Amino acid sequence: MDQLIQTLIIGLANGLIFALVALGYTLVYGIIELINFAHGDVFMLGSMLAFGLIAIISSGGLGVFSITSGTPVLVMGGQIALTLLICMVAMAVLNVSIERVAYRPLRHAPKLAPLISAIGMSFVLQNVGLIFGGAYQRTIDNIFPNTNLLEPLGITSIAITPAQVFVAVVTIPLLLILTWFVDRTRQGRAMRATAQDPDTAGLMGVDVNRTIALTFAIGGALAGAAGVVQILYNNYTVWNLGFRFGLNSFTAAVLGGIGNLRGAVLGALVIGEVNALSDYYLSPNWTQAIVFGVLIAILVFKPTGLLGQQLADRA
Amino acid sequence: MSTATSSIGTGPGAWLGYVGSNAAALPGRYATALRRRPGRTIGLTLVVLAVAVYPVLGHYVLADFSRTVFPLPFPDDTVATFMTIFAIMAIGLNIVAGFAGLLDLGYVAFYAIGAYCAAFLASPHFGALGINLTFMGHVGPGAAGIHLPYWLIAIIAVIVVATFGALLGAPTLRLRGDYLAIVTLGFGEIVPLYFKNLSSVTFSLNLGPINIALQNVNWTGGVQGINPIDPPFLPFFGLVFDARSGPLAVYLGLFLLMIAIVVALNLEHSRIGRAWGAIREDETAAEMMGVNTVRTKLLAFALGASFAGVAGSFQASYLGASTSDFFDFSISILVLIMVILGGIGNVWGAVLGAFALTYVDKTLLPYIGQRIGDVAPTLPNPAEYNFLIFGIILVVMMRFRPQGFLPSRQREAELSVAGLAEAEAGLGLPAALENVEIAPPGQDEVSADARTPETPGEAREL
Question: Do the beta carbons of residue A190 and residue A205 sit within 8 Å?
């Protein structure tokens, strides 16, 4: 029982990282009906950039913030915040440029053309990661103390580490801010309008191109944040990380009902748990096959997902 | 297979690709556009010539020529064999993606199944299980494991892979466009995972008389894969077509490729080929006109996959090994790029795209890398970043020339007819009404009633 709870906690932390990436897929699909195949690789480049900023020069980074476990907490917090900011801005800019170069010219082309273009973009980004990070895994030391936060409460059989708390502290506010942004702000309303009907939204005075670019910027920023969390929590990155991670996140977005923000988060948590349970109880070798099985089953039997459509509701 | 071949036509003319009788049934300009097809004759002649002169030219003239005079390197025999293997794959994917318009991103799965067909049926692998069967194989009688001749394996591979094509295609029948692409991608990832992970199977089944108990059985060889696999072997002439046989293997590859080309060209202009074109252009309309969409799509998946079965079994036999790591998603995309580069929907385009891309990938880039390495060893080797180049090719092609360099004549003809009809409609209609016409299918009452409301597919219906 304790082991099950422990596995679920691990799954929850990974699910939260999936959620940040899954939102990028669901936002883009919601607004232009494109499976942004390159999104996982944007996340990978985010983690590469975070690695470069954080890792010390001797291990292949730029050593700008070179955080170690000995860094004072306040300094560490400031450095992590700066890393987050830089990665989010950089990935937002990258994602907008990708949209500009590879997707915008194809907006009125047959639907499979932008998908193929996205696959091409994905390979381009993977190779950028390969040039930047080399052909092997880049790892950093765990900067968080390896203590159990539940120990003061008298629980020793289940552990929650500071690293897991860190994941929650970064991701949950971002998810809340995004929900607030889409639901409550003027720009968010423009996004929902464009998702429903771009032509009518344009007639109503919404700048459709700018709104789509903004959507890509938000997706890229979330992927950048996920990259930072990935490097600080899982402590590694590699050039082809984006493919598997991206397909997990895309599965999460589909599971929740693509186009639906809350669905994407819910789906990501479920996929995180599926990953953790399969890793522990079955075998890590089969995890990917199970996730793909879930993806195929949803697409074939219930393509609207768990929560159905909200954002991309165009029926 | 049988249903498709029976509708191609009769007599030897049909096998040489003459489809005049089919074209005669079509009206006017379209028929003449179809009947005048000099490309086929020229193309076939070129392939036959290539087969005839390849070894002489390749080994004694061009290789020296390219070393001394011409700056580009000549592909060696291994690369030339892989050119034919990838060309067969590209032709098969072109049937699924080009003729029927079903974007298959998991085509590598069928390649893998084909390769493992050869690995299971022509290697000592199952000797460990006590299964020994030798029939006209490359090895002598009494050897451990199953050893069947390649020619039989190729036929078995076609049947097995076509079955898997239909099986994996069946769940996707209701899907369209990008969702179909993602489901096939999932299958393309799962199948190699099975070959990778089923290296120790423990399984027991007790049903009274039938009692099966497997204890830690190595089914697929896991990460190491299966080797050695018997090479293709022609018994009476003592010819062995393996990696050491030089141009012989290229001959066999070209022979298989020619069969593939002839079959594909005949399929394209057969009844089933026209049905594929119909569902590619408008599935609902095709169904209304009496095309059995389920059967047509399953045939596309099965027939398209069977080409990968030939390619995969030939590759495994030729290399003498089959490893699961080889069958990566990037292979699916590589073949897709070949098809798109050549001109989606065009058999000759697929062949040309496959030749060109395999050459660039396996000969030109390593050569350039070597040259760069000689001059400046610190610079990156372009052969390591081949997919950077291929990714750029995909993006640029989609942007500037989505129809490829050898666009399909059929598609061009269709496009011009459609363009004409549209222009006529545009003249007769007031501008305000045009928007009504553009409303996508599935939004008006007729289609909504005719189809199940939950039909996944075009996302605007979701």
Answer: no
